């Protein structure tokens, strides 16, 4: 019988809000199926329950912003905002979103949220933000997020190497990418058994490519993993995409 994957670590318990909690960050994870949010204290510990609304069927900027406004109404007072977005982000502008809608090209998401909510905002790639919530900060660490698409983030001694889009690199067959095999499309097309074989192959391939010391697997589809990962591979909580929000400020300060 194939051994089961290790259980992902639990999300830290909610801490009480005190004077030392500030600045409190409203951290947001924009996903292909859900928009999630949580409040974190200055140390990155949760001070609220996670809230979630469904990603609109046609996820244009206007539609997604309405969903984010819903999340905003569910949250208590906060000081700043961090957003993990599923696409390339530069200076708070989304250059594209492969699994949302073409109209996200060159959209000023950071400026728009600052205008709407009157709070300082920082926007980064969702896998980068998830990586901040997962890594230990030692050596070369790679983070792969398995969800609607496939996100990737690479860190050296805790410092982000920005702009990595491994999900859209050609892999195995001309015209096919890592995301085609390991994103939701791949899971639906090949089935769970073959998807797990492909994931194990990707683990070996990326280790040879990046010589990483540690690999972290996150995202909603980690629950589909049915093999025990190698010792240098760790399955992390799906909430890492929220828990890393406070570090978006630290790394870019």
What would you note in describing this structure?
The structure is a single chain. The chain is of the alpha/beta class. It folds into two domains: 19-126, ATPase, nucleotide binding domain (Nucleotidyltransferase, domain 5), CATH 3.30.420; 130-241, Nucleotidyltransferase, domain 5 (2-Layer Sandwich), CATH 3.30.420.40. The protein is built from seven helices and twelve strands. It has helices spanning 61-74, 109-117, 126-132, 178-182, 184-210, 240-243, 245-252, and strands at 25-30, 34-40, 51-54, 80-85, 89-90, 93-94, 121-125, 140-146, 150-156, 159-161, 214-218, 233-235. The strands form three sheets. The protein has a five-stranded mixed beta sheet, sandwiched between helices. Strand 9 (150-156) and strand 10 (159-161) form a beta hairpin.
Give the gist of this structure:
The protein has 253 residues and is α/β, with parallel strands linked by helices. It is built from 7 helices and 12 strands. The strands form 3 sheets. Strands 3-2-1-4-7 form a 5-stranded mixed sheet, with helices on both faces. The chain has a 5-stranded mixed sheet with strand order 10-9-8-11-12, with helices on both faces.
């Amino acid at each position: 019988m194939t051994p089961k994957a290790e259980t992902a670590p639990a999300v830290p318990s909610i801490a009480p809000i005190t004077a030392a909690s500030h600045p409190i960050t409203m951290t947001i994870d924009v996903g292909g199926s859900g928009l999630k949010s949580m409040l974190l204290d200055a140390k990155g510990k949760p001070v609220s329950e996670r809230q979630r609304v469904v990603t609109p069927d046609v996820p244009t900027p206007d539609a997604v912003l309405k969903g984010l406004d819903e999340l905003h109404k569910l949250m208590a007072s906060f000081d700043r905002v961090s957003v993990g977005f599923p696409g390339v982000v530069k200076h708070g502008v989304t250059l594209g979103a492969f699994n949302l809608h073409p109209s996200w090209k060159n959209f000023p998401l950071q400026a728009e949220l600052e205008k709407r909510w009157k709070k300082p905002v920082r926007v980064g790639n969702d896998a980068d933000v998830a990586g901040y919530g997962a890594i230990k900060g030692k050596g070369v660490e790679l983070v792969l997020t398995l969800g609607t698409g496939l996100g990737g983030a690479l860190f050296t001694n805790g410092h982000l190497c920005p702009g990595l889009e491994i999900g859209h690199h050609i892999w195995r067959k001309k015209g096919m990418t890592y995301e085609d095999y390991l994103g939701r499309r791949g899971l639906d097309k090949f089935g769970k058994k073959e998807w797990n074989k492909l994931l194990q192959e990707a683990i070996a391939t990326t280790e040879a490519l990046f010589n990483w010391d540690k690999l972290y697997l996150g995202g909603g589809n980690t629950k589909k993993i049915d093999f025990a990962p190698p010792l240098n591979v760790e399955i992390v909580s799906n909430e890492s995409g929220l828990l890393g929000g406070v570090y978006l400020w630290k790394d870019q300060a």
